[in-house]
């Protein structure tokens, strides 16, 4: 068992932070094509242990539910609602991981500290994602609901990883491959043909090795062995680190609002990840 599962979560979050920067290089390509190719590339990370890909049907179903179901709902949300609002609602998933933990993980209890940390993180993420400008409109309600559904899928998938019978981490390669093939089928059904250039193929390779591949292997190890309440609070660092990376690459800039968001996210992560105080022992009479 990993001694420090939070480190695996941090590794996944760091890789996901590169998604916006790498994704900008493939922005002209159809989304389902990008997801499908990236996931198929990511599956190759455990190809050397392909025998481990054979898992119970229920385990495989949960894996595809998470990887394919999440991206399917999210990309259709982006089609039916403005990306800004859809992305904000999508970032409910860390808060849902925290709040749904007692329902899906036996013996897990929420404290006010966990809830406060999750809420602070969400407010900080909201400021990062929206820049303080948000306008929800009823005409985009289907897209909003799909974005919330995507958040529900990813949070429940993450928690179900802890409930599944034991399986090798390398089985994530099978989840990635099947989900990638389903995404490519959606590409064929819903999108025009893609013709990536050499630079875009290089970006797709990096996406598959990092945020759309390697990150899932780290995430699985983190959630199966770690405390989902802490990991959920820590996950709000994803949009923060993504913004910092975009700024470093010249594709974004920090302002006072972003600095406030940084303080909120760091405060929420600290609240949610601090170890719990032991209950005071009763004094003998």
Descriptive report:
Helix content is 68%, strand content 0%. It is built from 14 helices and no strands. The mean pLDDT is 85. It is globular and about 45 Å long. The protein has one domain. With 285 residues, the chain is mainly alpha-helical.
Give a short summary of the structure.
With 285 residues, this protein is mostly helical. Helices cover 68% and strands 0% of the residues. It has 14 helices and no strands.
List keywords for this structure.
0% strand; AA-Vitamin_Transporters; 285 residues; transmembrane helix; EamA_dom; transmembrane; EmrE-like; mainly alpha
SSE diagram, text form:
Layout: H1 5-17, H2 19-24, H3 31-43, H4 57-80, H5 83-90, H6 93-104, H7 112-130, H8 141-160, H9 172-190, H10 198-209, H11 214-225, H12 228-234, H13 237-248, H14 256-273
Helix pairs in contact: 1-11, 1-13, 3-9, 3-10, 4-5, 4-8, 4-9, 5-7, 5-8, 6-7, 6-8, 6-12, 7-12, 7-13, 7-14, 12-14
Poorly predicted runs are none
Class computed from helices, strands and strand pairing? mainly alpha
User: How many angstroms does the end-to-end distance come to?
Assistant: 42 Å
- Broad shape: globular
Mean pLDDT: 85
Measured by DSSP, the beta-strand proportion falls in: under 5%
Number of strands: 0
Number of domains: 1
Q: Rg from C-alpha positions? A: 19 Å
DSSP summary: helix tally: 14
Relative helix content? 55-70%
Largest sheet: none
Order of H and E elements: HHHHHHHHHHHHHH
Main location: membrane
Keywords: Membrane, Transmembrane, Transmembrane helix
InterPro entries: AA-Vitamin_Transporters, EamA_dom, EmrE-like
Membrane topology: Multi-pass membrane protein
């Amino acid at each position: 068992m990993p001694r420090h599962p939070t480190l695996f979560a941090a590794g996944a979050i760091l890789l996901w932070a590169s998604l916006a920067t790498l994704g900008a290089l493939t922005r002209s390509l159809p989304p389902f094509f990008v997801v499908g190719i990236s996931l198929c590339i990511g599956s190759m990370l455990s190809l050397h242990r392909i025998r481990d890909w054979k898992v119970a049907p229920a385990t495989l179903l949960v894996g595809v539910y998470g990887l394919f179901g999440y991206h399917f709902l999210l990309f259709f949300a982006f089609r039916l609602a403005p990306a800004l609002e859809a992305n904000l609602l999508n970032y409910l998933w860390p808060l849902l991981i925290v709040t749904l933990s007692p329902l899906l993980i036996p013996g897990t209890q929420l404290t006010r500290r966990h809830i406060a940390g999750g809420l602070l993180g969400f407010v900080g993420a909201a400021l990062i994602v929206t820049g303080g400008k948000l306008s929800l409109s009823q005409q985009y309600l289907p897209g909003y609901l799909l974005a919330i559904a995507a958040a529900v899928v990813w949070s429940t998938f993450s928690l179900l990883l802890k409930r599944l019978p034991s399986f090798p981490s390398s089985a994530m390669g099978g989840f990635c491959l099947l989900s990638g093939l389903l995404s490519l089928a959606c590409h064929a059904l819903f999108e025009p043909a893609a013709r990536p250039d050499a630079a875009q193929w290089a970006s797709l390779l990096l996406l598959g090795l990092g945020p759309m591949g390697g990150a899932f292997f780290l995430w699985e190890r983190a959630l199966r062995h770690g405390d989902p309440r802490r990991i959920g609070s820590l996950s709000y660092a994803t949009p923060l680190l993504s913004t910092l990376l975009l700024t470093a690459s010249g594709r974004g800039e920090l302002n006072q609002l972003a600095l406030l968001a940084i303080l909120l996210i760091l405060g929420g992560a600290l609240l949610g990840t601090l170890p719990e105080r032991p209950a005071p022992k009763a004094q003998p009479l």
